[in-house]
Amino acid sequence: MTIAHNLGFPRIGERRELKKATEAYWKGDADYASLAATGAELRRSNWEKQKKAGIELIPSNDFSFYDQMLDQSCLVGNVPERFAWNGNNATIDVAFDMARGTREAIACEMTKWFDTNYHYLVPEFTRQTAFKLAGRKIFDEFEEAKAQGIITKPVMVGPATYLSLGKVTDDSGLDKFALADQLIPVYVEIAEKLAAAGAKWLQLDEPIFALDLNDAQREVIKKAYDALAGVKGIKIMVAHYFGELRDNIELFTSLPVAGLHIDAVRGVKEVETVATRLGGETVLSVGVVDGRNIWKTNLERAIGPLNMVRSKLGSDRLMVGPSCSLLHVPVTLRSETKLDDEFLNWLAFAEEKLDEIVFLAQAVDGNVDQAVLSTNQRAMVDRANSARIHDESVKKRVAAVTEDDYKRHSAYTERAQKQRGKLNLPAFPITTIGSFPQTAEVRKARADHKRGDLSDAGYNAFVEQQIVDAVKMQEKMGFDMLVHGEFERNDMVEYFGELLAGYAFTKFGWVQSYGSRYVKPPIIFGDVSRPEPMTVRWSKYAQSLTDKPMKGMLTGPVTMVEWAFVRDDQPRSETVKQVALAIRDEVVDLEAAGLAAIQIDEAAFREGLPLRQADWKAYLEWATASFRLTAGGVADETQVHTHMCYSEFNDIIEAIADMDADCISIETSRSQMELLDAFVKFNYPNEIGPGVYDIHSPRVPATQEMVDLLRKATQVLPPERIWVNPDCGLKTRGWAEVEQALIHMVDAARELRAAKAICVG
């Protein structure tokens, strides 16, 4: 019979129990036993939910207190030397040190997991890197489930993906793929131990099959799975997801493993080819339920490819699952009592997707629940025809956009002269990326207001006082371009989405972004427009408090779409253009309100880049155009900033320049200014704010540390085009650390100014 299985389940809990437990542990308010108990209860609950739904092959080790790539580094003993690991069991505290940094050690670099908004900790490799089995998590969690009466399928990141996503951090000239000969035996040892423990299947995630692979990567894949094929007593499943296989299809289907998983949402056109190529007794897992989005599966449509695979392979060689781990969707719809029935009927979160998987596995064997199928088809028709989705005025406005709408009035060099004359800023101007700490007091006031326990007048007065305090603090510290602090905003996407037409919001639809940082992505279900100004009131008030320039803060159209669950009934480029026009209206209104600078964050610009280079050109054309559309309505004197975090820029630097922002700020502190290389080689002409303060770590960098980073920047960039700022917004940090770090940052800028004055003198 066809098997219903899952690749991974959300680890955070229905009420963000993991976040609360983890942060309590970090603060010292809870001990390890309490943290471990929360983790154990979440795992127990997740396994029970999947078993109850009818999932026959349930994953384990998909749970993590922080990140699965970080867990893999600990499992194979790859802990950077600076964390002073004793070489024994790589415990959760070792993992937390790597993720968050210590007083003595900078945290490991963090970047986006393929084209998702999930972040992973980047493995570090040096000439001294050595691998060994150094963790027990994967074995302990298998035994936990077994004690619960469930023989799970342990999951871990595959060796080729692990090496591909890591980076060499010394100057030894090391070929990281040469480490495969050390790493693969550890994977074999892990598989052998799992087999001895009674595991029947081991899932190795290799999403790099969605990328353009080089010869070294292909060789690692062959070596790894030839070696793992020799492990007795356990079946290996290689899971590919996030895209099509394309030229990797021959390598993938030739792997000597018991099972292969394909993404049949993004790669539906390849299902028949893959099934036809499979020989022997290899099982094919077909991921027809979308693990990346929250729309119901069209069950009738999904049965088609499954029936085709069954006709070729038989039901005994067919598994049905999600396209990828369900990590990327919220836990359950059960608690979403504020969404109306029509809208709820269009959605499926992780728990509901389990039911879809089980239905499809049964249906392909001929056991079709006609009532479920009929209800599903009615939901498909209702959504397609709903009047709430379509707005003719938005469609007409998009159609009326002209080439001139995508351009500033003058070229950057002319704009820059006008802006410098207006702003009159010193060398190394100091600013921040936008947000200040969202304290418990701020969050409580927002929650009270939302519940109706705090009046509009009371809430507005509270926010205004927060802005007053933030402006005074920045002036006292010596900032040159101020921000209002974003105290009114719950999230950089959610806040705007709540004020735009075409967006809907859940109450408990949280997903993990990194560590204990969770986001509640909005749902773009229809045509997008801006009914009224969204930020003008707060930015205008902040500007009234100071003679220094105030920077208006907005989220860009690509990020607004990438960090949402986006409608799947029209091209993503069309949705982005609609959002761009809405943001353009806000930019124009901010300028009219007296703001001299406006920052349009495009943190997800690189994240939206297709995984295959052949697909980049089309994306970069409409993505850069959408940014220019947001900024094209203001005068030359108005300075337009953008911010991007955790992006590799070398291969898209021309597109970054095509955005034509007057100033771009980027993350550079963890990478020690490495990301500036792209801007230097390209001779990027505009102004740059290389981040000197890593806000994703609680450590407070010393002034000298920031001075050293800025000096690195001055060695490759003209000093007159360098801004001084943190890596990202400060909302997740506490005031005590932030104030000290910002004081150090200002002192660092002043030291660079003094040195420049001496040189000029």
UniProtKB/TrEMBL annotation:
Residues 4-312 form the Cobalamin-independent methionine synthase MetE N-terminal domain. Transmembrane segments: none annotated. One of its GO terms (biological process) is methylation. The active site is at H696 (proton donor). One of its GO terms (molecular function) is zinc ion binding. Its EC number is 2.1.1.14. Binds 2 Zn(2+) ions per subunit. L-methionine binds at I433, G434, S435, E486, D601. Keywords: Amino-acid biosynthesis, Metal-binding, Methionine biosynthesis, Methyltransferase, Transferase, Zinc. Zn(2+) 2 binds at D658. Residues 428-750 form the Cobalamin-independent methionine synthase MetE C-terminal/archaeal domain. It comes from the Eukaryota. InterPro entries: Cbl-indep_Met_Synth_N, Cobalamin-indep_Met_synthase, Met_Synth_C/arc, UROD/MetE-like_sf. 5-methyltetrahydropteroyltri-L-glutamate binds at K19, N117, W563. It is an enzyme of class 2 (transferase). Zn(2+) 1 binds at H643, C645, E667, C728. NCBIfam families: met_syn_B12ind, PRK05222.1. This is 5-methyltetrahydropteroyltriglutamate--homocysteine S-methyltransferase. It comes from Porphyridium purpureum.
